[in-house]
Amino acid sequence: xxxxxKELDLIWGLAEIGKVIGRTYPQxxxxxxxxxxxxxxxxxxxYFASRRALxxxxxxxxxxx
Length: 65
Fold this sequence. Notes:
By secondary structure, the protein is of the alpha+beta class. It has 4 helices and 3 strands; from the N terminus they run H-E-H-H-E-E-H.
């Protein structure tokens, strides 16, 4: 992993994001396209998210349930 990615705490790609949140690529793609995971952003054809932002988002979702 590049030093800059470590500093920024970024996860690149829907498959890698899926590993972090325990979902498959198709599931993550559907959730992103539906707007259900706001921390995930797109640059060109690539998606990325901050690991901390993802965890915080799902912690809030869990607390609300």
